[in-house]
Amino acid sequence: MYRGPVASSPGVEPKSKPQISDSLLDLVGNTPLVRLGRVGADLSCDLVAKLEMFNPGGSVKDRPAIAMIDDAERKGLLKPGGTIVEPTSGNTGVGLAIVAAHRGYKCVFVMSDKMSDEKVALLRAYGAEVVVCPTAVPPEHPDSYYSVADRLTNEIPGAFRPNQYYNDANPAEHERSTGPEVWDQTAGRITHFVAGVGTGGTITGVARALKAKNPDIQVIGADPEGSVFSGGTGRPYLVEGVGEDFWPPTYDPALVDRTIMVSDAESFAAARRVTHEEGLLIGGSGGTAVHAALVVGAELGPEDLVVVLLPDSGRGYISKIFNEEWMMRFGFLRADGPVAGDVLAVKQSAHDGAAIPDLVLVTPDEPARHAFALMRDLGVSQVVVSVSKEPPLAAKEVSGTLTELQLMDKAFLDPSVLDRPAGEVMEPALPMVGIGEAVTDVVDHLDRAPGVLVLDGGHPIGVLTTHDVLGFLAARSPG
User: Fold this and answer.
1) Which domains can be identified in the chain, with CATH numbers?
2) Which of 60, 110, 238, 245 qualifies as a cystine partner to 264, CB 3.0-4.6 A?
3) What is the pLDDT of residues 206-239, one digit of tens each?
4) Helix or strand or coil: residue 11?
5) 61 is an active site residue
6) Which position among 50, 61, 396, 410 bears the catalytic label?
């Protein structure tokens, strides 16, 4: 609380009253708009960004975090000294952790294993406990981060789960604050609003506010490839904090005029472009939204004003999308000189016309005998075990590997092995290399493994062995 004026030099009168907030929570909201003049230089319309990283916790999630805790306190659902439990991609956790620090609550956050190390470390820095769960399981699985959060809420005395996916205070806060801010800051000129869809709270709340002012405003959802909002089945993707594998009640699809599917590669390229060209460090989900905004903006004219919401900063993604090695490993960048993709191309040309797929897959529940039959019929020495065989395969869906030599050794000792599920007899997954990684890196992996799995934009597309590398080198030899 402000205790009075700060002493000033004798004879010098201050020009205004002190501008001191009582709490960090008072600084949430009223984030600025900035024109994306370089990224949007080729557009006829105006493209501006709502900078939610200017919130104290660094993201748009500060807004609903305060609103959900205020609502829980009013309803008596969260008592003094209680514990906040929430499954979160990181940003909601930070917002809740800030509120908890000010109001004396404990925090336990449940995260999926695809989240960056920085996000986990950040939540722990606020004193929160973090529980990490696997990504490649359905929501109803006992190890999913939704199920674990439910269990912890029931087990911890005095626990309260804000449940941002089901909490009406989430979209209500964006209807109260974010939407009116966008309207006022554009003086009502806005014609299109673009945002990523996760819980659906942001886009739903903002859409309600904007359409109440002007029903003709178009609301566009930006969604990762694989997420349900743009027609996917909820299969894994690499971009964080956006998209879902189910339909949250906090999302009202009737308010969204269009949904644009954006790949991981497009998301990361847009995030890096905004950072390099605008000096504005943004995360992958912000890149998802920017890519969608550019798709929309290319169709518009000078009378249109597109506002894209950038939910957070890129500081939580330094070890991933702004790390050249990580981007290379997942097949988003290309090294100089011969690379894994060149070896794969030579392999494919050598089998031109033959019925040999680039990737031979079995699911964990298929019998190992079927995997052996595939190896025999196709003339390959290994198959990839994956929870899905539907393209495009995600790296997280790869469970392991079955090799000809390994199966032979096990079947020699126990012939019944061939009738057991592949998931029970498989070996660990092959090392993964990006399509743009140097051939020397491929060779290094092959010194320790029977093959490598090649990724293109985060998607496994083929397997390389020592034989394939030798074939590549032979093809390049002038002799």
Assistant:
1) 17-322 (3.40.50.1100), 326-476 (3.10.580.10)
2) 238
3) 999 999 999 999 999 999 999 999 999 888 899 9
4) coil
5) yes
6) 61
